Backbone:
């Protein structure tokens, strides 16, 4: 057992942290107003090597796995969750494309998108389904996606993953949170460009999407916990820092394990995803299940921490001069993605119901082999 | 980063599981049914000794390993000296597994118990040989015990009232101690007493009080809500003489320590350095709190498995509400377990883990109790019968939020770390 990151991952984390704190945090309100990070930020993000983490090296990426992604996402979201979404134009579409057709699909769909600045992919989880698929076309409306334009639409159903390159019209919305990534209603009427029918592959793509969101939630919650803690040490009431009144001291104390547990659950699930092959074996099923758990844990942690962060700042927390109210909105928005918490609960609950030993004697994430590397 | 286990640890876990399934679970249920601790002369304890359990981790070869053990006191940890399979993480995992089968039985295991850490950390080589030596390869089940808590002082350990009065050649102890595990069957008890109640923790001294010492008596095995398999014993010290050679952490100057320090008296009290070292070892690289937290995880896991089994048999898993609640319990136990692992891993790495250890201890007992409470609700009226394992776990699990620092104390420790919460004036 070793909780230390491998040197290259620790460096990546440090790079992401420095970039996020120096370049995102000071401008997060500007990003929110402009509905996009600034050009300089976008450029620098690419130059620092934070883009294309999961793409294979043969396609010009870093060839890293889920663990690398969750580390970077946490750091970016701890500064500006909306920008974190915008800065990853493919997001969990990488895993979905990999599920559809491996490197070929990535070459065909991901690379052209990355070549166009501002182009964005959106990943929808459609289990009801809301979009109707017939004769090779998908049609319907989607109430919200955190993007102002959608150049590639990836849809995950229970047993199928499909992709649309055309036929998606984005109508801008105000957006509840994540406005720095944009917000729009999608009107879909387009030809399916590629698809695969496979429950394990669809489930695996969903697992990656959930971890992607979970790590953003962890970062958002962490930022709210850190900021409100710092404020509570500065703000004096009744003759002492408000942090030194037990009611708040205990609340701040409870935030720490909430964030830490969600982070560890996310790391644990990422290790499992990186180690378990994309098949339908027990290890793969367990990895996907734990990704759902991590998403839930992160959503719950953020739902606990971010409103309480606002609370600790009192009236100031409610004002848009402070970032707490924004992080509260971003956290809620993140928890709505990819089927939201209820779908995750449903998936994790069904998997649990089928398990003989839900927390068996030892069920740690498989070892370092493959950890931090892209699944083949 | 990897969260996998080495082979030695896996082997220890498999051994713990076999022992747990075969012996501990039935013994725990029996003790619960009979409402009494497993008697000290029960053949189970003899078998444990034959299996190589009930030993000290002190090797007798210098202090390094003992210091390590001082930071990690999990019951049943038998492997001494093994770098792999023997650290805080491994001990914690074994503690979780043993508690899965029965935490009460696990605490009843022979061994130096919680007394090992202070003897290891504060004892002279001679004292270690005298008190821990017999536990290196015990001929029979032997127990050590530890007594800090008093009727009027639990979390607030600075408030203990048992007095230590200096006399020629030793000390006289006078006071009452409560809830000491295995105390009536112990060869010796590490008793904390104060030379001056006004001096708080500074006035504390640790004494090894041996069985049969005149004045040590009135052993009363408490009646508990759960965890009945081990004895929680209250006892009295009535003008109980303890010789100098049984005082821990008093290598220098004990004879001159009258316990009455003049106002503004300079310098730390004699023996303070050793005690500070003990306190430091217990607090900075704490493996006990994560281990206790892991025991809670083990108990919660047992409740979850039983609830799941029952729900499946009764066809309740078709109900999304039941699945949702079980899912939450599993997730909270999983999260608590990861917090435990990380805290113990930090201890193994000799990195400060005060915050992490308290996080684990704050979170895990609540998760365990939630698991057991849900189990009762899934059982429904069958839980009201009082004869189901889940019902026992429901009673057992509550203790975990009380022992080794209540949840409230953990939050105070965390708040001190996070926001420098000031200590209350005394």
Residues:
């Amino acid at each position: 057992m070793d909780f230390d990151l491998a040197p290259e991952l620790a460096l990546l984390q440090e790079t992401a942290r420095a970039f996020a704190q120096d370049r995102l945090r000071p401008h997060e309100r500007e990003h929110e107003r402009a509905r996009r990070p600034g050009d300089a930020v976008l450029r620098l993000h690419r130059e620092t090597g934070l883009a294309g983490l999961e793409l294979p090296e043969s396609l010009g990426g870093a060839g890293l796995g889920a663990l690398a992604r969750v580390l970077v996402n946490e750091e970016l979201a701890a500064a500006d969750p909306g920008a974190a979404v915008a800065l990853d134009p493919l997001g969990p579409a990488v895993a979905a494309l990999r599920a559809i057709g491996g490197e070929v699909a990535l070459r065909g769909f991901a690379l052209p998108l990355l070549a166009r600045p501002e182009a964005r992919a959106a990943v929808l989880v459609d289990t009801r389904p809301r979009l109707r698929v017939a004769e090779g076309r998908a049609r319907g409306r989607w109430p919200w996606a955190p993007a102002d334009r959608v150049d590639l639409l990836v849809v995950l159903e229970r047993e199928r993953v499909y992709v649309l390159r055309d036929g998606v019209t984005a109508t801008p919305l105000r957006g509840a949170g994540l406005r720095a990534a944009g917000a729009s209603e999608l009107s879909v009427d387009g030809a399916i460009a590629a698809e695969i029918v496979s429950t394990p592959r669809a489930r695996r793509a969903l697992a990656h999407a959930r971890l992607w969101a979970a790590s953003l939630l962890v970062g958002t919650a962490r930022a709210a916990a850190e900021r409100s803690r710092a404020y509570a040490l500065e703000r004096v009431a009744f003759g002492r820092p408000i942090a030194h009144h037990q009611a708040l001291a205990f609340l701040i104390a409870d935030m720490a394990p909430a964030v830490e547990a969600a982070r560890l659950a996310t790391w644990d699930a990422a290790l499992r995803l990186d180690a378990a092959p994309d098949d339908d074996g027990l290890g793969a099923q367990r990895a996907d299940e734990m990704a759902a758990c991590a998403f839930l844990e992160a959503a719950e942690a953020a739902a606990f921490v971010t409103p309480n962060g606002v609370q600790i700042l009192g009236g100031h927390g409610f004002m848009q001069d402070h970032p707490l109210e924004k992080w509260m909105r971003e956290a809620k928005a993140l928890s709505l993605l990819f089927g939201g918490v209820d779908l995750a609960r449903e998936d994790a609950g069904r998997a649990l119901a089928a398990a003989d030993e839900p927390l068996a004697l030892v069920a740690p994430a498989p070892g370092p082999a493959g950890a931090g590397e892209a699944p083949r | 980063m990897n969260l996998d286990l080495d082979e030695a640890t896996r082997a220890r876990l498999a051994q713990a599981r076999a022992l747990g399934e075969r012996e501990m679970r039935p013994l725990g249920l029996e003790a619960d049914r009979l409402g009494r601790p497993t008697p000290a002369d029960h053949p189970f304890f003899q078998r444990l000794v034959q299996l190589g359990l009930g030993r000290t981790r002190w090797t007798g070869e210098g202090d390094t390993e003992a210091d390590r053990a001082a930071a990690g006191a999990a019951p049943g940890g038998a492997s001494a000296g093994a770098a792999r399979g023997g650290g805080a993480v491994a001990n914690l995992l074994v503690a979780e597994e043993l508690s899965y089968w029965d935490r009460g039985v696990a605490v009843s295991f022979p061994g130096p118990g919680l007394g090992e850490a202070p003897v290891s950390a504060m004892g002279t080589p001679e004292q270690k040989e005298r008190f821990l030596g017999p536990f290196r390869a015990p001929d029979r089940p032997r127990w050590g015990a530890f007594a800090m808590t008093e009727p009027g002082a639990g979390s607030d350990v600075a408030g203990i009232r048992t007095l230590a009065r200096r006399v020629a050649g030793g000390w006289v102890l006078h006071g009452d101690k409560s809830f000491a595990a295995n105390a009536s069957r112990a060869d010796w008890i590490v008793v904390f007493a104060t030379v001056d109640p006004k001096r708080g923790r500074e006035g504390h001294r640790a004494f090894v009080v041996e069985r049969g010492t005149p004045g040590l008596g009135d052993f009363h095995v408490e009646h508990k809500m759960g965890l009945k398999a081990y004895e929680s014993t209250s006892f009295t010290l009535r003008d109980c003489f303890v010789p100098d050679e049984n005082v821990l952490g008093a290598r220098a100057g004990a004879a001159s320590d009258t316990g009455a320090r003049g106002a503004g008296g300079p310098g730390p009290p004699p023996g303070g350095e050793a005690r500070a070292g003990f306190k430091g070892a217990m607090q900075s690289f704490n493996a006990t709190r994560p281990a206790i937290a892991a025991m809670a995880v083990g108990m919660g896991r047992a409740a979850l498995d039983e609830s799941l089994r029952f729900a499946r048999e009764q066809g309740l898993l078709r109900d999304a509400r039941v699945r949702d609640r079980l899912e939450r319990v599993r997730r909270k136990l999983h999260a608590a377990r990861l917090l435990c692992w990380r805290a113990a891993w930090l201890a193994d790495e000799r990195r400060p883990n005060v915050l992490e250890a308290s996080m684990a201890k704050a979170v895990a007992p609540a998760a365990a109790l939630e698991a057991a409470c849900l189990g009762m609700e899934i059982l429904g009226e069958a839980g009201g019968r009082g004869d189901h394992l889940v019902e026992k776990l429901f009673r057992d699990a509550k203790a975990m939020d009380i022992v080794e620092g209540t949840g409230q104390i953990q939050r105070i420790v965390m708040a001190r770390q996070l926001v420098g919460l000031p200590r209350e004036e005394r």
Q: What stands out?
A: Residues 64-84, 252-269 of chain B have pLDDT under 50 and may be disordered.
